[in-house]
Amino acid sequence: MNCLHLDPTLLTNKLDTKNRDFIYTCLDNLKEYNIPIIIYYDYFLSSEEFKLKNLWNHMIQKWNHMKREMKNNKDLLKSNYYKGDYHQIHENMNDDYFNTLLSNFIEESQFKSLFICNCIQNYIYPI
């Protein structure tokens, strides 16, 4: 798990009681790496729904910043990671919509899934 900034189990200290029941699937492509993705899913479900848009906006801001910083990297420009535009959302969202947004962003890419996990960690524990 050295691809993550923090040990995901540290996030359990920030989890409240789950507010809702929903089965998230957006990070399931990390199961084979034994990353405890349930911690991230529990974090989503323990947050108020209106905070999901804040989390989405944080992740997209980090992604767009990374793309701007690496705009001269020829390998990135040729890759699928440079394609696609992602925008902040300023309306509340529910779990299903949030899961769909994340799944569409990740597109089964382990890199993007790990990026999302690190963004969540950064959102909870700003560096």
In short:
The protein is mainly alpha-helical and 127 residues long. It has one domain. The chain is 49% helix and 0% strand.
Top keywords for this entry?
127 residues; mainly alpha; 5 helices
Question: What is the approximate shape?
Answer: globular
Order of helices and strands: HHHHH
Portion of residues in helices?
A: 40-55%
Determine the structural class based on helices, strands and strand pairing. mainly alpha
Largest sheet: none
Strand percent estimate = under 5%
| Nearest-integer average pLDDT | 88
- Residue stretches low in confidence (pLDDT < 50, at least 5 long) are none
**Count of alpha/pi helices:** 5
Q: What's the structural domain tally?
A: 1
Give Rg in angstroms.
14 Å
Number of strands: 0
Distance between the termini: 18 Å
Structure in words:
- The protein is an all-alpha fold and 127 residues long.
- The protein has one domain (8-124).
- The protein has five helices and no strands.
- The protein has helices at residues 37-46, 50-69, 74-78, 95-106, 110-124.
- Helix 2 (50-69) packs across helix 5.
- The longest helix has 20 residues, at 50-69.
- The protein is globular, with a radius of gyration of 14 Å.
- The relative contact order is 0.22.
- The model has no long low-confidence stretch (mean pLDDT 88).
